[in-house]
Amino acid sequence: MMSFKNIILVAILVFSFFSNLKSQKAIQQSQAIFDNLKTNRLEKIDAQFDSLGMGKLVKAMQTEAYKKELAVLGKPKKLLAIYDEDAGCKKRTALAIEFKKEKKLLTILFNQQHRIENLKLMPYSETPFHILKGYKGFSEVTDLTTEVKTRDGLTLGANIAFGDTSKQKSPIVIFVQGSGPSDRDETLGPNKIFRDLAQGLAQQGVVSLRYDKRTYAYSNNLTVLNDSLTLYEETINDAIDAVNIAQQFTFIDTTQIYIIGHSQGAMCAPKMAELCPKLKGIIMMAAPSKNLVDIIPEQIEYMANIDDSISNKEQMQINSIKWMVEKIKSPTLSNKTPKTMLMGASAKYWKSVLNYNQVETAKKLTLPIFILNGERDYQVRMIEFENWHNELNKQKNVTYQYYQKLNHLFLEGEGAPNPKEYDIPGHIPQYVIDDLVKFILKK
C-alpha cells in the first residue's frame, strides 16, 4: 500500500505538471497580447475578454480604461519580462512594458476557459507578485492542492498547508474571505493574506485549509450566482462544508477545528459556529459589528475624503450609495427591485444581511472566540472592535487584541490609511502569527 507521504508526493507532481501547462498557456497568450498592443490591433485583445454574464459590463469598463491609458503612455517599445502566478483556479500574468514615456505593468487575470477576466495597467515593479516569506518554526511547509465539494454540488479549488505532522495529529483552521470575489489566498495586489497566514501557522504546527470563494470560482456563471444567492450560499454554507472536508485528512485532530474569518468572513463566523458544532473556536479578523449595509457608506465617504476635500463627482457617488442603502433598508424592499438600485446585489441577498445580527449571535456562543483588529483599518474601524468589546465584555470565552500599525489586511503601515497601500508588497507580521498560535494551541 502506498504511504501517505508518497501519496502527497504523487499529488504534488501531478499538480506541478498541470500548473506548468497553465503557465505556458498564460504566457503564450500574454506574449500575443503584447504583440497586438505594439501593432495597435486592440480589437484582437478585446475579443479575448470573457463576455458572459457580468463579464459584459467588466469588458466594457476595462477596454475603455486601458485604451485611455495607452493614449497617454504612447506606443509600447519593449517587453521587458512576463511574470505569472497561480490565482486560485485561475492564472494571473504581469507584463513589464517599456512605453515611450515610462515603464508600466499590464496585469491580466485569465479564467479557467483562458479568457481575460481582468486587465489593467499598474505602476512598474520588478516584483509584481507575492514572494513567500518564511516564519519561525518548521523549515519546510507542504502546500497541497485539494478541493471542497459543496452541498449544492460545486467544486471549489483549495489548498491544505501543513508542516511536520508525523508526531501527532494537528489542529486545523479554515480560512474564510471578506466580501466580494476572492481567491483562496485572499490576493489583493502583490499581497496574499491567507497564504502568509497558512505559511506561518504551518511552521508552528497548525494545519490550514483555504479555498476559492464561489463568487470567484464561478464569477461568470449566472446559474450559480443568481438572484437567490444569500449570505449563506455566498459565505456561511461553504465554510461549513470545508469543515467537513477537513475532517477527512488523517493527520487532523477533528476536535480542534477553527474558523479564521477576515472582514465579512469574520462577521459570518458566529453564525458558522452556531450551525456547526464541530468547531472548537472562531477567530475574527477585522470583524464588522454593525450591519454591513451601514458600513459601506462610511467606507465610501472615507475614501472620498482622503485628500481632505470631496469633489462634486465624489459627493454624487456618496449620495447615490446612501440612496441605495435607504432602498435596501426600506420595509418595502421587493425581490422585483432591480439590482442596479441595490449596489449590484439582489433584494434576497440584502434581506439575508439585514436579518443577521452577528453580535447577538456571538452572545449565545460558549466556544472560544478571538477578535482582532488593526488601528489603521479604515474599512472596519476601531469603533467596531470597541463595540464587540462592549457588547461581549461579560463573556469569559472571548479574547481581544488590536495592533497599532496594522491596516485592514493586517499589514504594517504609517500615516493615514488609504487604498493605495494595498498595492505595496507586505507580509503578515510574526507577532500576529504568534498570537493566533497562542490562541489555537493555548500556549
Q: What's the short story on this structure?
A:
With 443 residues, this protein is an alpha/beta fold.
**Helix/strand/pairing class, anyone?**
alpha/beta
Rounded mean pLDDT score: 91
Number of strands: 14
Order of helices and strands: HHHEEEEEEEEEHEHHEHEHHHHEHEH
Q: N-to-C terminal Cα separation, in Å? A: 38 Å
Any idea how many domains?
2
Helical segment count = 13
Jot down its keywords.
443 residues; Nuclear Transport Factor 2, Chain: A; Rossmann fold; 2 domains; eight-stranded mixed beta sheet; four-stranded antiparallel beta sheet; 13 helices; 38% helix
Layout of helices and strands, plus pairs?
Elements: H1 4-38, H2 42-46, H3 55-73, E1 76-87, E2 90-99, E3 103-110, E4 116-123, E5 142-149, E6 155-162, E7 170-176, E8 187-188, E9 191-192, H4 193-202, E10 207-211, H5 214-217, H6 231-246, E11 252-262, H7 264-275, E12 281-285, H8 292-304, H9 312-329, H10 347-354, H11 358-363, E13 369-374, H12 382-391, E14 398-403, H13 430-441
Parallel strand pairs: 7-10, 7-11, 11-12, 12-13, 13-14
Antiparallel strand pairs: 1-2, 2-3, 3-4, 5-6, 6-10, 8-9
